Amino acid sequence: MEVIIQKDEITATTFVAKIIAKKLKEKPKLVLGLATGRTMEQVYAILAQMHKEEGLDFSLCCTFNLDEYVGLEPDNEDSYHSFMRKNLFNKINIDIRNTHLPNGMAADLAKECADYERLIIATGGIDLQLLGIGSDGHIGFNEPLSALRSRTREKALTPATIKQNGPLFKNPSMMPRRGLTMGVGTILESKQCLLLATGVEKSSMLARAVEGPITSMISASALQLHQHCCVVADEAAASKLQEQDYYRWIFQNEPEWADFRK
Ligand code: GLP
Predict the structure, then answer these.
(1) Whose CA is nearest to atom 3 of ligand 1?
(2) Contact 14, 21 (CB under 8 A)
(3) Fewer CB in 10 Å around end: N or C, the chain?
(4) The domain containing residue 20 runs over which residues?
(5) Is 136 a catalytic site residue?
(6) Among 67, 117, 127, 234, which one carries the catalytic annotation?
(7) Pocket residues for ligand 1 (CB within 6 Å)?
(8) Is the pTM of this model over 0.90?
């Protein structure tokens, strides 16, 4: 795991958008894993701007989102389908047929999850998986005690997640209590993971995920098992990390990041 600390939210977010843009230029048929949440809104705004101003091309890119609520129609304004269209897909030149999210309205949810897994594999696997971190340490909707080898499945949401995401709903009491989510095992099979955390409210959970023991109580800690995982945090989110100086030193000295230090 590598930790990159950036000054503030906008520099951290821009950094993540630049990594995605670089990958997309290197591989136009990139299979990109996407996330939702407030943290991602800014990343998508920057990618949309890069498309508009610099012609960043998404025409061959294929995407898989981490999760979706159970029981929301894709055109429900609170669904992650809507979130993605509003924040990214409607603003770039992606072929909407190349975008994928689990369908929380499927008649057979177990089959929907198995089909989602098969589709990821048939597409060649995820090249780069973007991740946020929930207040309970979840990635996707992998709530505490999600098996480290779990696959895409239905998951009951925790009170912490309901408290965190409820305010995003027009009517918070209507927030579904269940979601479909890629499993921790699914996420760990991505070729590269990129987790973005901003704000002081993420600092304790980020420190536990990055520097604490690997535990299914904090799904994000499973990323320590990944061979190519990069965590980008702003100063506030990184404030409880013990080894900040070491992480900064690495970033300043790694040739891989030369273009990003400018
Ligand atoms: C939701 C998503 C997660 C995301 C989390 C972070 O729960 N299912 O994938 O990481 O939100 O949300 P925020 O960026 O709003 O803090």
Answers:
(1) 140
(2) no
(3) C
(4) 2-261
(5) yes
(6) 67
(7) 35-39, 66-67, 132-134, 140-141, 161, 165
(8) yes
> pLDDT tens digits for the chain (262 residues)?
999 999 999 999 999 999 999 999 999 999 999 999 999 999 999 999 999 999 999 999 999 999 999 999 999 999 999 999 999 999 999 999 999 999 999 999 999 999 999 999 999 999 999 999 999 999 999 999 999 999 999 999 999 999 999 999 999 999 999 999 999 999 999 999 999 999 999 999 999 999 999 999 999 999 999 999 999 999 999 999 999 999 999 999 998 888 888 6
In this structure, the chain runs to a length of 262
For atom 10 of ligand 1, the residue with the nearest CA is 132
The answer to whether residue 143 is catalytic is yes
Q: Are 258 and 31 in contact (CB under 8 A)?
A: no
CB 127 within 8 A of CB 23: yes
- In the chain, the number of structural domains is 1
Among 117, 138, 226, 234, the active-site one is: 138
Q: In angstroms, what is the span from residue 141 Cα to ligand 1's centroid?
A: 8
**Residues 31 and 127: beta-carbon distance below 8 Å:** yes
User: Could you give the strand order of the β-sheet that contains 128-131, starting from the edge strand earlier in sequence?
Assistant: 2-6, 229-234, 192-197, 128-131, 31-34, 62-65, 99-100
User: Residue 133 maps to which CATH number?
Assistant: 3.40.50.1360
What ligand 1 atom has the least distance to the C-alpha of 66? Answer: 9
